[in-house]
Specification:
By secondary structure, the protein is mainly β. The chain contains one helix and 14 strands.
Length: 217
């Protein structure tokens, strides 16, 4: 997958329906439900044993940069528009992009103590406030920043489309976020939460393998 270089202010592609996205190649990504046995909470893994987790089966991804910022556009079908929590059965829809902070990291366990990961996380109840998350294994996810990731989203024709955008380099955050350089080949994975299916936290659909993106020089 190529992160195409655009000689523009990336604010011009911050909206999911921006015209510039039409010229960028799409990567179709298959998703599966996270295994309930991997949940750190026994209450969750047993209480949802009869529910199919992973309602969203695929997501479309595009990626661009302008030598200063990286922008990722995601789109997926979702017949249920969920923007708030209702009781304990319905939750906000969400999506994330995951990167290994170093050269590699185990994807299934959200990294490890020696190979952590960084996620750019969007949720429908805070559509303009993406979060940068750090994890070093199952049950260790922590929010490290809620200002680095700029997000915009749109829901139309029973589809979500979102854009997540961040500076290539974040000074002072070495070891907590993935830093990017031109020409890098970077591993990336994806996750989507369907709120009407009770998906939240570790309950989600995700890509079971890393995809590679190349930041075009």
């Amino acid at each position: 997958m190529l992160s195409k270089k655009l000689n523009v202010d990336l604010a011009e592609v911050s909206k999911p329906d921006a015209a510039a996205w039409s010229a960028v190649a799409t990567q179709e990504v298959s998703l599966i439900g996270v295994p309930l046995g991997m949940q750190p909470s026994v209450y969750i893994s047993t209480g949802l044993a009869n529910r199919k987790i992973g309602a969203v089966s695929k997501v479309s991804a595009k990626c661009v940069h302008n030598e200063t910022e990286l922008a990722i556009r995601l789109e997926w079908e979702d017949p249920n528009y969920n923007i708030e929590q209702k009781d304990n059965t319905e939750f906000p829809d969400g999506a994330a992009v995951l990167f290994p902070i170093g050269d590699d990291a185990p994807l299934m366990t959200m990294g490890s103590e020696t190979q952590p990961v960084n996620a750019w996380h969007w949720r429908a109840d805070r559509p303009a406030s993406g979060r940068s998350n750090f994890a070093a294994g199952l049950g260790t996810t922590e929010v490290t920043d809620d200002k680095q990731i700029k997000t915009e989203s749109n829901y139309a024709n029973k589809r979500w489309s979102i854009v997540l955008r961040r500076a290539l380099q974040v000074p002072g955050q070495e070891g907590k976020v993935r830093q990017f350089n031109l020409g890098d080949t970077v591993k990336m994975a994806f996750a989507v939460w369907e709120g009407s299916n009770g998906e939240r936290g570790g309950l989600k659909a995700f890509s079971p393998q890393w995809y590679e993106i190349v930041l075009e020089k």
